[in-house]
Amino acid sequence: MSFETASIPRVEGANASASASAAALTGPKLRVSGVSKRYGDVYALKESDLELRQGEFVTLLGPSGSGKTTLLMMIAGLVKPTSGDIWIDGRVATHQQPYERDVGMMFQSYALFPHMTVGENIAFPLKMKGALKERVREAVDEVLEQIKLPSVRNRFPAELSGGQQQRIALARSIVHRPSVVLMDEPLAALDKSLRTHMQMEIRQLQQELGITVLYVTHDQEEAMTMSDRICLMNEARIEQVAAPSELYFSPRTVFAAGFLGESNCLHGIVESVDGTTARVRHGGCLLEGRLMNAAKAGEACRLMVRPEAIRMVAGQRHADQAHGNAIPADVAAHVIGGAVSRTSLRTDSGVLLAATQLTTRSTAAPAGGVTVTFSAQDCLVFGAGA
Ligand code: ADP
Ligand code: MG
User: Fold this and answer.
1) Residue nearest to atom 1 of ligand 1 (CA)
2) Which domain holds residue 149?
3) Domain ends where: 232, 254, 276?
4) Residue 97 to residue 91: CA distance in whole angstroms
5) Same domain, 34 and 162
6) Which atom of ligand 1 is nearest to the CA of 44?
7) How far apart are CA 105 and CA 11, in angstroms?
8) pLDDT in the model for residue 8
9) Lesser CB count within 10 Å: N end or C end of the chain?
């Protein structure tokens, strides 16, 4: 198995960061301002803004082709922006060469140098910037301790397991203490259990050392587990930047609600709006939910409800407001999928809804006619603009 990492060394000496302006000490480690990238008529990234604070782990998450790698490559200096500026540690880096930028990189597709020992691989970024031999030795020793592999210094990459190689790749991306470490799907080639293990290891080391990381993945679970904040991308744009829980519970767009986790979608017409609460007519039901964007009475809208937020009341079929959000439905199917059980429900309006609940021995499988209920908090209303 081969992994890619290439660290881009700092040109300046080790004291360069100490002499950085005072703004660099308090300001963001990375700032992307109005950055776009156009290839011919097509935007790989539309004007985007993003800031990373010292010690933050931020993940670019989005479907394939949404612009994640393009944004990362522009920060690394490997792709030239069409517009906008990039600041690294308080300095404009937009026109700097890759090797002049204070970043480390860990990518899936660059292998470790096979003809170099582990020690030589890790030392590479330091040697590139002309660090003294003694300093290189110390830094390599220190980082090998940090990744808990002090004894593999003289081995060659082919003599290491996949997980060990990946840790060496990680060591090489941080050995020169860059302001920001950029990682593009570094775990995509690993099998599930090693990937889960490496996710924890990278996160732990990042927190221990206070490293600032911009990470790329298309795997929502990976993004949710590892990140302080997620930058959700879609069709060359940033959709929302938020902590994982905020993105999950308060997605600002239909795309965000659908991409992260699972959501049931119901169509309706806005009946009335009161602040952030909307009342919506769906078939014969009047439903109440949290309005996530601007919408006016009479407009079409969508309601998003997560399967785990749905409760089923057996043996009744209500659609009256006295019972809160209530939709009459019939149970179409029920399966125990392990810790979670899943019920498919067909509403009278013909929509198929999914409901999930923790599996318990005592609960009888739902059957026949039921009332589907959910709280107004768990019902997100999106107007046409979302
Ligand atoms: P992601 O990493 O999210 O999968 P990319 O940043 O690689 O997405 O690509 C974003 C979009 O830009 C895609 O539509 C891709 O085809 C396009 N793109 C990327 N690089 C180039 C290039 N060198 N020339 C033309 N189009 C490109
Ligand atoms: Mg990519």
Assistant:
1) 65
2) 3-254
3) 254
4) 13
5) yes
6) 12
7) 15
8) 40
9) N
Q: Is the CB of 48 under 6 A from ligand 1?
A: no
What tokens does 172 get? 């090489």
Which residues pair with residue 311 across a beta bridge?
A: 373
Taking all residues of the chain, what is their mean pLDDT, rounded to a whole number? 89
Strand partners, 305: 264, 379
Pocket flag, ligand 1, residue 252 (CB < 6 Å): no
Contacts of 89 (CB under 8 A, 6+ apart): 17, 20, 24, 29, 30, 102, 179, 180
Cβ atoms of 209 and 215 within 8 Å: the answer is no
Query: Which CATH number belongs to the domain containing residue 320 in this structure?
Result: 2.40.50.140
Q: Are residues 282 and 238 in the same domain?
A: no
Which single residue is written with the structure tokens 């090998």?
144
Q: Do 232 and 266 belong to one domain? A: no
Q: Two tokens at 331?
A: 């149970």
Enumerate helices (H) and strands (E) in the chain, giving the number of each: 9, 21
Asked if residue 41 has its Cβ within 6 Å of ligand 1, the reply is: no
Ligand 1 pocket test: pick from 70, 219, 239 the residue with the most ligand atoms within 8 Å of its Cβ: 70
The rounded distance, in Å, linking the Cα atoms of 86 and 78 is 13
Instruction: Say yes or no to pLDDT of 19 above 80.
Output: no
Placement of tokens 């290491």 in the chain? 160
Asked whether the predicted pLDDT for residue 3 surpasses 90, the reply is: no
Which residues are CB-contacts of 237 (< 8 A; sequence separation ≥ 6)?
Answer: 45, 46, 48, 67
Strands (E), 259-367: 264-274, 277-282, 285-291, 300-305, 311-314, 326-336, 340-347, 352-358
Match 């060359």 to its residue by tokens: 236
Report percent pLDDT > 90 for the chain.
Answer: 74
Residue 271: other Cβ atoms inside 10 A = 16
Spatial contact of 61 and 247, defined as CB atoms under 8 Å apart: no
pLDDT digits (tens, 9 = 90+) for 35-74: 999 999 999 999 999 999 999 999 999 999 999 999 999 9
Nearest to 292 by CA among 282, 279, 278, 312: 278
Indicate the residue type of 285: C
**What's the pLDDT tens digit per position in 100-114?**
899 999 987 667 899
